[in-house]
Amino acid sequence: MIMHMWEECIKDYGLRPLWDELLAIFDEFARICKKHGLRYYALWGTVLGAVRHNGFIPWDDDFDVAMPREDYEKFLRIAHEELPSHYKIINWKNTSEFHYLFAKIQDTRRDRVSSLEKDLGFMMSNGIYIDVFPIDGYTTNKYEKIAIQLRDFLLVLIGRYRIYKWGDLTWRGRAARIVGMLLSIFVPRLNSQEAIYPIFEKTAKKFKFDASEFVGDVGLWEDVFHMPRQSRKSWGNPTPHPFEDRTIMLQENPDEYLKSRYGDNYMKPPPEKDRHPSHSYPYRCAWCFGPTTDKLPY
């Protein structure tokens, strides 16, 4: 019945060649997780695609997974030895231009990226990759929550000044950068990504996934005041679900997870104008072909 509801709005967006590449990376990720007993869950639109389509959203151009923090850090420690040589882990520690608190598994083969772009007819600005997010717990103490959010908000403003280039920002981002510049006068030691990001991670690690009532992905670090939290019980144990011709792990209660992300009507298709790939830009990201240093993520 669900698929019938979608029959009239689904069309071929020509993304199958990209999906095959993403699934090849996922297969290696899942193999390592199974070998080492590491937990993972699908995330964001990958969950939505699994539930609504038993596979990719027809216009989706990425693949997201998440791991409890301890599993995530173990994965990053062993991945460089376990992954095929053409797949590399990137994060803020080995790629200074990467301004996020999660990681990517990146295909470093330039010829494969070029060939895929010819098949798709557009630039894959980030290259070929899947995103891997850490999942952490949240405090339930409202005063501690306010203190953490305020502290993180100030760090975000300073980060805008220290990390982002003026020409890459919107007018709101430029205003935030100016405020961050003024704040940075009082904390000169916070002069780089390497100085700022460990503070975020230290706080995140304070609240353990398995011991918390609420959990969420903090990798999108700029959204400190609007980060959706989910019940730890709704995440539960990783639960298998069909995805294309494979099985992936979802939250134990994906309905509750999807409602927290997309609202109660997540099964309803978006307007036609919003059905398009969302990760293609008219320039190459620095990590398109892998890390920019040889430093290991952890």
Describe the structure.
33% of the residues are buried. It contains ten helices and nine strands. Helix 6 (142-163) crosses helix 7 (171-184). It has helices spanning 2-6, 16-36, 44-53, 69-82, 110-120, 142-163, 171-184, 193-206, 232-235, 254-262, and strands at residues 41-42, 64-68, 87-90, 103-107, 128-137, 214-217, 230-231, 239-243, 246-250. The longest helix has 22 residues, at 142-163. The chain is of the alpha+beta class. It is globular and about 55 Å long. Strands 1, 2, 3, 4, 5, 6 and 7 form a seven-stranded mixed β-sheet that branches. It has a two-stranded antiparallel sheet with strand order 8-9. The model is unreliable at 1-10 (pLDDT under 50). It folds into two domains: 2-136 and 230-270, Beta Polymerase, domain 2, CATH 3.30.460; 143-194, no CATH class.
List the helices and strands and how they pair.
Layout: H1 2-6, H2 16-36, E1 41-42, H3 44-53, E2 64-68, H4 69-82, E3 87-90, E4 103-107, H5 110-120, E5 128-137, H6 142-163, H7 171-184, H8 193-206, E6 214-217, E7 230-231, H9 232-235, E8 239-243, E9 246-250, H10 254-262
Parallel strand pairs: 2-5
Antiparallel strand pairs: 1-2, 3-4, 4-5, 5-6, 6-7, 8-9
Helix pairs in contact: 6-7, 6-8
Overall average pLDDT: 87
What is the number of helices?
10
What is the number of beta strands? 9
Unreliable spans: 1-10
User: Whole-Å distance between the termini?
Assistant: 46 Å
Q: What general form does the structure show?
A: globular
- Estimated radius of gyration: 19 Å
Strand content range: 5-15%
| The CATH architecture of the largest domain | 2-Layer Sandwich
Share of helix among residues?
40-55%
Number of domains: 2
The top-level CATH class of the largest domain is: Alpha Beta
Query: Which structural category fits the helices and strands?
Result: alpha+beta
CATH topology of the largest domain: Beta Polymerase, domain 2
**Major sheet summary line:** 7 strands, mixed
**Topology order in helix (H) and strand (E) letters:** HHEHEHEEHEHHHEEHEEH
